[in-house]
Amino acid sequence: MSTKAEEQTSEHHEEVPAHVDAEGDMGAPPPPTNDAAAQETDGKETEEEVIPTEFPTFPPDTKESDLNLPKDCFLLSKQNDGFQIPYYLTSEEEVSKVRPPAVVKTWEQRIGECDEKQQATFHEFVEEVKKQPWYEEKFDDWYCLRYLIARSFDIKKALKMLEKTAQWIKDFGYDEKTQCSICQKDPNQHMGQFIGWDKEHRPVMFMSMRWGPERKNPLEHMVCCFKHLISQMPQGVEKWVCVTDFESYSHFKDGKPSMGLGVINTIQDHFPERLGKMICVNPPTLFWVLWKAFYNFIDPVTRTKVEFVYTEDKPCIYESFPKLFPYHIRGFMYDTYNRSKHKLPAEPLVWVPDPDGYPTTHDERKEQLKANKAREKDDKKAVKEAEKEKKDAAKEASDHHKKKESKGKSSKGKDKEKKDGEEAASAPEEAASAHTQTASNKESQKE
Ligand SMILES: [Zn+2]
User: Fold this and answer.
1) Could you report the per-residue pLDDT of 259-277, keeping only the tens digit for each?
2) N or C: which end of the chain has fewer CB within 10 A?
3) φ and ψ at 224, to 5 degrees?
């Protein structure tokens, strides 16, 4: 029996992971841990990564209509305004450089990961499925194995689960549905889309709270997205990775458990063994209230797939993302999070990596933030100086005007006397203004 098969049998949904056992009950969520999630990719990072240095260039005013986007990579025909199109998805030629191989694992390899007993159960299950009145061809070997794993190789339970999905497929209209009807009318209602493949060739879905304000009906969009992700899986890859940006999460608006539960239940009931990882970036403190409400509804295996990471704190995306994502896709996410944090628009339309590269450790990130802060401070100072200068100049002009006016009122005889005095008085003012200017010049030189 292979170790992989052991891993899979322990991945079924009835079995409870160690952290829940130790707690004795499932009522109180443990502090978020990334251990389980980290284990999955640890040990696979022996290959030295080659970081590309040359990227295509795009004119800054590039429009979506100027690009020949590979249709299969985009769910919608028009993109959300908050979405920068990653350069590697701008054309068939670019995407071919990052596409995974067509076959990552053959069926023989997949079933070979199960032990003899599991294989026998599997064959029995497939025969049962084929006898059912709801049976359809799409419930193939791969499909059946996922349901069987999700129900710990219990044929009865797996059959019941698959039957429910067969019904759901009809009720939901899953086969016919290709696009979210809300986003078809306005692509700025939801932000959830495919952005490439991770290091294990799993399709990655990016979601953002800020760029998707619609909250009442996220299920249709999510299901269409899942369908799209599945279409982007090479043979032998069965899971997807979902990354959510919590920037702009509002507990008042987003903290309703009922909203997310529909999506969670749909994944658990109808997409078993599909969620590879759910990465939550920058969840705010109040999110834990929602997480607590969700906790008991999320099965223990799904829970271990959820990971919490931060852009400016530990666990830090600059340390965890390199384990999971190739350079191009993690760079896209780093820049997207920073843009979202500063509420910046998706400009220019096409994203290319920062030529200066990205931090690789939390400490490097701290240094970068420090440098950014110092630069911001300098910028603010320069703006203040410029404002002061402008004010001084305005004051000077107004003083001058007032003096001119009073000059007009006074007698001709007094005129000359006064003028001499004025000139003498304005001299120190001019000197002060000149001084300010030098200081401001120095400030901008420092930049
Ligand atoms: Zn939508």
Assistant:
1) 778 888 999 999 999 999 9
2) C
3) -60, -40
